[in-house]
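Question: Now follow the chain.
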Amino acid sequence: PLADCLSWSWVVDLPDLAPRAEIHVSHLADVAERFVPGESLLLRTGWSNYFDEPETYRDGLPRIADDLAAWMIEHRVRLLGVE
């Protein structure tokens, strides 16, 4: 249902990640403490800036670390967007 795609969302700016960096719970800063189960996360990495560098853009996208993946399950993150 469309309603499953709607929720309050937190936008977390992560502009200085290195290629293939892992994104950890610590990157969420105070969002991790203020997050309410069922909300969504939007991780703004700025990775679209590398669109003109196909290998970096394709192969260097920052990754979700295991601790963040487990945290998202525990906190019932509704939607995750990574840019």
